Amino acid sequence: MISLADLKARIEQGALSPEAAIGQSLEAIGALEKTIGAFVRHDGKARAQAAGPLRGIAVGIKDIIDTADFPTEMGAAIYRAHQPRADAPVVMALKQAGATIIGKTTTTAFAANDPTATLNPHNHAHTPGGSSSGSAAAVAAGMIPLALGTQTGGSVIRPASFCGVAAIKPSYRLLPTVGVKCFSWTLDTVGLFGAGVRDVALGLAAMTRRPELVVPSSVAAPRIGVVTQAFAGAPEPSGAEALQKAARAAEQAGATVRELAMPEIIAEAWRIHPVVQEFEAHQSFAWEYGQHYDAMPPLLRGRLDESKGGTPAEYDAAMDVTLRARQALAAILGEVDVLLTLSAPAAAPEGLSSTGDPRYNRLWTLMGVPCVNVPTLIAEGGLPVGVTAIAGFGGDAKALAAASFVEAALAK
Amino acid sequence: MISLADLKARIEQGALSPEAAIGQSLEAIGALEKTIGAFVRHDGKARAQAAGPLRGIAVGIKDIIDTADFPTEMGAAIYRAHQPRADAPVVMALKQAGATIIGKTTTTAFAANDPTATLNPHNHAHTPGGSSSGSAAAVAAGMIPLALGTQTGGSVIRPASFCGVAAIKPSYRLLPTVGVKCFSWTLDTVGLFGAGVRDVALGLAAMTRRPELVVPSSVAAPRIGVVTQAFAGAPEPSGAEALQKAARAAEQAGATVRELAMPEIIAEAWRIHPVVQEFEAHQSFAWEYGQHYDAMPPLLRGRLDESKGGTPAEYDAAMDVTLRARQALAAILGEVDVLLTLSAPAAAPEGLSSTGDPRYNRLWTLMGVPCVNVPTLIAEGGLPVGVTAIAGFGGDAKALAAASFVEAALAK
């Protein structure tokens, strides 16, 4: 993989030109893209910018995020060749920081379930996960050092876990979702993929002009609460093993680690996530579902068919649970620095028909709290499994620092 | 003006065909639009739908809201002839309720300050207010029974006050802002204009499938807290008179009315509204401001120039004030049913160079609470002045009922 931190240091030292850094990505795309299929399209003539903290950094943008220089097709026939007028604010933030938008990465249709043909770089017989399939796979394959994705259920953290890359789903609205195809306005969150935790931290810090997000060279041992999310069902062996391994490594490196039970309201929030998501999705996709029913991606259409009867009263009740669960979670996060939980039930499933199960991710999306995937182990078939570090709302720096601590502990 | 409630009743009784109702609007547009200039474009061949609670209701859509059947030009040269692919969810909600989208109404450029040529129907030498200029003017002129606008500072309530129409800025995100050009994602709110309070209530109830928003035939006398917003400066005589008149009328009709002092955190929230607005606007308009600086509307560009130095730390502090003020306001709204305050400092100013001052509106937009404008008096020059009824977050039905009570009290 290409480390953003490493690239940035070499560029700043003058050991590498921004143009050569972009060239390295173009070369890797030339060699690997045909096999992996992580891009919808890319700019083979992309050039580096001369200035900015991300000069020389090639970034892939999930194809539900508007770009003025590339069509934005949403992975869906309805938007074939659709050309937005403007760049989304997150794209402009990257450009203003000096990055080069090198192309658009594949997405499941409308960032829902209908899969892309993208392969998992670690094992081509397996899915890279979704919905941000191309962004995770492009970073994992070593084609680019940074990519943007989005998460409504588990669409950033799960593919990061399956592809063995670091990723952050920041606090809700730390990055604007303006110009990003909406699934659920309460849930949709823009996230970043990179080789390691320090890499995504540098990307997020540059995009938001928040230097405090950069992981310091030395990180104090955090107080960690391990959450198994029993309400979401038991994981498979490789998922369970990853959580145990990460917790043990952190403890051996000096962290305080204990298992935390979650109150019933948190389990309730996990249960009602789909109520919020589907009620809003019926409004967000009203035009597509109402006017282009036959052309709708079949898995998403089926979900909308099933959830047609959702009422405002059910939605209001779910939003009430959400608010109470956020308060309960804030109280819990007063006792520990971060939570550590599963990123996925197991390694990536075989085949491309499913992008895997977001059941360990969706609660945290609904809570709006920052989540960082830390690659943890390699399971059978060479497939990675990660864990998630979680801080309280607005505690993105804390989540990144703790994730970096766990990452370093695992490397020992 | 055309009353939605009246039209709807006659259509449901079979006394008026939906087609004839749409024809009435087309005729009025034919007669008045040339003078008022409330529409960017309209469909002279618009037809009624056969079913739905809003069948026969012609609706104007502010031209920053995406429509698949009309270009959406944002009142700005940069978006001339821009044709969105999809209808915004609020447009689809109207269509699904049976309404007819009759055209796009004028907006100040990007819903900021640069004015349109739209005239105030009550006095052509005066502004109709903004940014939802055309929506307020089209309803006030009797061209259409319902229109959509948006508010980030005072862009729904202020033009409603200036044009003598009812309007609601609902609770934050009761109506999705998906497909609406973003100014500030924390503030932007879609609102409705109609002839009277019961009219906008019927429109909002149909759009949201929430029958509880319909104002009942008999409304209990509310407990009203009058708020003068001294922190925003003193009003001019016509504004002060409107607030006094509405309060007195409500009291005489049986309401409990008392003046309420606001705690310092509320005044502080009023002060920091522009910090939130401009920090987010720099991101929302990053593409336009960064790539089309010369074509930017000059007043908005000037605001962005001035607020260029805004930092994440200032924004975080402002968001912290916002949260604390929302909690304080929720406590205050436990003591009374609604607040009553100024909709504008006075009647509409003369000329078209300014759309007026949103200083009495912006706090409530930041608080996310439902606001309803009630036309209250006619000042010098035949110009209307309104007042605003405000309930707690999610109390849209309460705000509408109380506004209807005040409206009826004023009619006595």
What tags apply to this protein structure?
homodimer; about 400 residues; alpha/beta; Amidase signature (AS) enzymes; 11-stranded mixed beta sheet; 11 strands; about 15% strand; globular
Structural description of this entry:
2 copies of one chain form a homodimer. With 412 residues, chain A is of the alpha/beta class. Chain A has a domain at 4-213: Amidase signature (AS) enzymes. Chain A has 13 helices and 11 strands. An 11-stranded mixed β-sheet of chain A has the order 1-3-2-4-6-5-10-11-9-7-8, with helices on both faces. In chain A, a hairpin with a 3-residue loop joins strand 10 (371-379) and strand 11 (383-390). Chain A starts with a helix and ends with a helix. The A-B interface holds A 68, 79, 82, 85-87, 89, 92-93, 95-96, 173, 176-178, 182, 185-186, 208-210, 280, 283-284, 286-288, 290-291, 311-312, 316, 394 and B 68, 79, 82, 85-87, 89, 92-93, 95-96, 173, 176-178, 182, 185-186, 208-210, 280, 283-284, 286-288, 290-291, 311-312, 316, 394.
Oligomer: homodimer
Please tally the β strands of chain A and state the result: 11
CATH fold title of the domain at 4-213 in chain A: Amidase signature (AS) enzymes
Number of helices of chain A: 13
| Molecular shape of chain A | globular
Could you give the order of the helices and strands of chain A? HHEEHEHEHEEHEHEHHHHEHEEH
Largest pleated sheet of chain A: 11 strands, mixed
Judged by helices, strands and strand pairing, the structural class of chain A is: alpha/beta
Order of neighbouring strands in the sheet with most strands of chain A: 1-3-2-4-6-5-10-11-9-7-8
Low-confidence stretches of chain A: none
Per CATH, the class of the domain at 4-213 in chain A reads Alpha Beta
